[in-house]
Amino acid sequence: MKGQSRFDFNQAAAVYDEWFSTSMGRHYDMMERREITRALKNVPGKKLLEIGCGTGHWSKYFAALGFSVLGVDISFEMLRKTFRKRIPWAEFVQSDAHYLPLHNDVFDIAVLITALEFIDEPHKAIMEIVRCIRKPGGHLLIGTMNAESRLNKQRSAKNEIPYHKASMLSIKELKNLLVPFGKPTIYTCAFSLNPSRPIPVVDPIFDSLAKKLSLQSGDMIIGEVQL
User: Fold this and answer.
1) How far is CA 40 from CA 16, 114, 123, 216, in A?
2) Within a domain: residue 170?
3) Suppose 82 and one of 24, 56, 104, 127 were both cysteines; which one would form an S-S bond, judging by CB atoms 3.0 to 4.6 Å apart?
4) Total domain count for the chain?
């Protein structure tokens, strides 16, 4: 299936999940889950649309939280890995985020985690995703790599795969994308003293302090909108 993605994740599917088993992967996963879980507490319903579900890493987590998940990804090979996991309360479909084969106003929330930066036309895709969220009261939740973080700047400078194809956003750029749909709440998270050598005890404390000080250099940006 040919679609609008900045990187062909079919070539990364076989090794994609390995990152989460590294010390760095486990560490960032923990910090990101904390923020995503907090945001999900504001959602009254349980029908969740996940765009860019990949191998189902987050889909499995959402289902464990009690959501009924529909995961969408453009990569067939990524979805092949997902199907093998047999995640309960979750279904998956291959589709381009710009043209979703879904009805209007179906989902209580749509979530994109490290997906928006690989979508070719973010504004067009967000419009299409918003179409599928119930109104009023539905939620849009985006977690995307921060263009202003030291780690992500290093990834881009080193031309690392797949970051070399990512169109990372700043807080201002994400806000501009979300403002047409409501009043967004936007902040950064996943601060780490040394991303290559995470400190499991210290970094969560540092992360919380950095957020309270409204620092904008966290490795991930969280953007939320209630429609």
Assistant:
1) 25, 17, 23, 22
2) yes
3) 56
4) 1
Residue 65 lies in a domain: yes
Structural domain boundaries enclosing 26:
9-226
Residue corresponding to tokens 């179906």: 106
Average pLDDT over residues 164-169: 88
| Secondary structure letter of residue 111 according to DSSP | E
127 assigned to some structural domain = yes
* Beta strands across the sheet bearing 220-226: 90-94, 68-73, 47-51, 109-113, 139-145, 220-226, 185-189
What local confidence, expressed as pLDDT, does residue 27 receive?
84
Could you tell me if 225 and 182 are in contact, meaning their C-beta atoms sit under 8 angstroms apart?
yes
Residue 196 has pLDDT above 70, yes or no: no
User: Residue 139's domain is classified under what CATH number?
Assistant: 3.40.50.150
Q: Which residues fall within 8 angstroms of residue 71, CB to CB, at 6 or more apart?
A: 50, 53, 56, 59, 79, 82, 90, 91, 92, 93
Query: Which neighbouring-strand residues pair with 119?
Result: 5
Q: Are 119 and 96 in contact (CB under 8 A)?
A: no
